[in-house]
Structure formats: C-alpha cells, structure tokens
Amino acid sequence: MKSNQELIKLTNKHVAKNYGRYPIGLVRGKGMVVWDASGKKYIDFVAGLAVDNLGHCPPSVVDAIRKQSGKLLHVSNLYHIEPQSQLAAELTRLTFANKFFFCNSGTEANEAAIKLARRWFYDKGQPKRFEIITMNDSFHGRTMASLSATAQKKIHVGFKPLLPGFKYVPFNDITALKKSVTKKTCAVLIEPIQGEGGVNPAQKTYLKTLRKICNEKGILLIFDEIQTGFGRTGPLFAYERYKIKPDIITLAKALGGGIAIGAMGSTNKIIQSFSPGTHGATFGGNPLACAASLASLKTLTKKGFLQKASSQGDYFVKQLHYLKENFSVIREVRGAGLMLAIELNQPGAKIVTACMKEGLLINCIQQNTIRFLPPLIITRKEIDLLIKTLSKIFTKIQQ
C-alpha cells in the first residue's frame, strides 16, 4: 500500500464494519514504534490492547516463529505436540495450576472456564449448581457465553436472549456478592483489574474476603487474567499482587508475544472434568503459537525484566498524578503496573485524536477514560514525551 487512503478504501470495501477504526493503516512495527501506510511514525501506548507486551516484532519471538514454521505448522490434537507440552509445563511452573487447556483467544479461554466450572459440579452429582456470578462493568468476551458473562448492557444490545445462568453484582461490593450466592452458584468469575470496564482495580480486602467465601461455600473462583497477565500489572500475574490463588485462571493476549493463543488452567482436582470429548479447539495449542509463547515467556521471566517494567510503571503513574494536580479535566488516576488510566470529566475521543496527530497512540474506553497499555519495554523518554504532549493538549482545553 502506498498510502493510508488506499488501505482504508480496501478495508471499507471488503472488511466487515464491526470496528470503529481510526483513519490510519499500520503496516510495520518495531519495539515501541509503528508506522502507517504513508510512512508516519507513532509511539504505541496501546500495544495491540495489551498483546504486545514485549513490543512489536520482538526478535526472540520472530526467531522462534521462523524456526517453527520450517518444522511444523499444524497437526491435530489427536496427537502429542512438542511445543504445546513444553508450554504447558512452563505455565504450570509459573502458576498455581497443574494443567492447561489451549485455545485461540481470551473469549475462548473464558468459554472453557465456564464449561469446566459447570462440568465439575455435574461430575460431582450437582447439576443444579450452574450459576456464575460476574461483576458490573466486567468484560469477558463476545461469544455467547462470554458475552452473557459480561455485565455491560451495551455489549448485550441486539443479542438477546442471553444465555441463562449468570448473575451480575457491583464490583468491590462484598455484601452484594454474599446476597447473590445461592445453592445454584458454582463459580465467581472476576477480573482482578477490570480492563474494558475502565481500569478498575479490585480492593485487596474484597478479593481476600471473596476467596474466603468461595472456600466456605465450595464455589470455584475464576480469575480472568487475559489483560492483566504476563507482567502487565507488575508481577507475572495479577493474582500474585493480591496474594491469593484462584481455582481457575484464563489467559490470552500477551501469552503469544503477538500471536493468537489462549489458555485456561486449573488444579488436577478440577481440570480432570475435562475428560476426552468434553471440550476442544482445532487450532488450540498449535505448534507455531506455542513456540512463540515459549519465546515470549523466556524473555518475560528473565531476571530483572519485570522489575524494570514495574519501575517504569511507578514512574508513569507519578507523572499521571502530576497531570491531575495541574489539570482539572482529570478526575481520577487508576491502575497498576503498566495498566493505567485517567478518567476525565468530559469525553476522551478528542484527546485520542489529538495525540494521534502528535504521533502517539492511546486508547479511550467508557467514553471518558483514557487507557494506557504500553509495551513493557517502555522507557522514561517515551513516558515523558506522552506527559508533555498531554500537558499541551489539556492546556488548550482549559484555556
């Protein structure tokens, strides 16, 4: 493509219009930077929505893909797959889980968790325990079960009737959760930090009490770590921040270093309910995706890597608080690690557009919340440039 206009024209003619796209077409990336079809350079603070945690085209992942593509691209899960087994072994080493099921995306990982929770109680002779409690403003995906689990009305429009068996309660409200638990409750599904809902962190006391309730009632606790996983919030997984362990974890986004892959993990006791024939995914755990994931994990777990990223997150949030102190347009600063946001007292779309003109990519969610999900390789230089640019934009707004 010679220009953005040519790429946009081709997209509009042939691609379904289910995304609201900005008027640029990205064609190349390296590290923190991407280039559009017209050659303009952008510093990326979106990272493919928390997918490119190592930046764009990380050399180790690219090299692993090249090597694996010359060996084996795909075989059925009727057979044992070397990179898949190696990836499962690495994930079990790094998490509380004993075994993993692999799929292709976050929504599929959540579908798997929903099915596993229900199947586990079915196998225990309790088929009437099928209800799952989720949180207002949650986001768990767009397939019918994960969409039904997502407690956002705008996501439901045009797709009713939703699947039965889901209850919604306010986030961080333990009293409301207790009232919603019945003899039909099989699980609680929660994001430790809500992503699409506005970058809303769970309170530590809330999650600790939730874990205690689940233990007392025999309810499974499912952590959706699709966006929070792989160093995004500081530690490798957000549950480590809270010093509690869920029963089931769902992963995707950054797992593949830019390649599509999802995973659902649990303990031997629970995941045994996924017996042959209960669930599957044709491309789940394919050799190429698993090879990319292994390379990504090797980098993420290198000594000092996450500590350095966490330090940049601490610096970033301090600079956002500096902005808040100086500009009344900012209502609140939220988040952890390099999953951060500023809530504005007005719509944020024009802020995204203004930053784009300056060569910076940011993201607006929930109408008035600006979300920052940069690659974990970010430096203070890029953070300072963003803060300087936002200061200039906010100064114009408040004049």
CATH topology of the largest domain: Aspartate Aminotransferase, domain 2
Tertiary shape: globular
Mean pLDDT: 97
- Fraction in beta strands: 15-25%
Q: Tell me the major beta sheet.
A: 7 strands, mixed
Notable traits:
3 domains, about 40% helix, single chain, 7-stranded mixed sheet, 15 helices, alpha/beta, Aspartate Aminotransferase, domain 2, about 20% strand, about 400 residues
Protein model, in words:
This protein has three domains: 1-35, no CATH class; 60-300, Type I PLP-dependent aspartate aminotransferase-like (Major domain) (Aspartate Aminotransferase, domain 2); 330-335 and 343-367, no CATH class. It is 40% helix and 18% strand. It is built from 15 helices and 17 strands. The chain has helices spanning 4-14, 47-50, 59-69, 82-94, 106-123, 144-149, 153-156, 174-180, 204-217, 239-242, 268-271, 287-300, 305-326, 349-357, 380-398; strands spanning 26-30, 33-36, 41-44, 99-103, 131-135, 166-169, 185-190, 193-194, 200-201, 220-224, 248-251, 262-266, 330-336, 339-344, 360-361, 363-365, 369-372. A seven-stranded mixed beta sheet has the order 4-12-11-10-7-5-6, with helices on both faces. It has a four-stranded mixed beta sheet with strand order 1-2-3-15. Strand 10 (220-224), helix 10 (239-242) and strand 11 form a beta-alpha-beta unit. It starts with a helix and ends with a helix.
Produce the secondary structure layout.
Layout lengths: L3 H11 L11 E5 L2 E4 L4 E4 L2 H4 L8 H11 L12 H13 L4 E5 L2 H18 L7 E5 L8 H6 L3 H4 L9 E4 L4 H7 L4 E6 L2 E2 L5 E2 L2 H14 L2 E5 L14 H4 L5 E4 L10 E5 L1 H4 L15 H14 L4 H22 L3 E7 L2 E6 L4 H9 L2 E2 L1 E3 L3 E4 L7 H19 L1
Parallel strand pairs: 3-15, 5-6, 5-7, 7-10, 10-11
Antiparallel strand pairs: 1-2, 2-3, 4-12, 8-9, 11-12, 13-14, 14-17, 16-17
Helix pairs in contact: 3-12, 4-12, 13-15
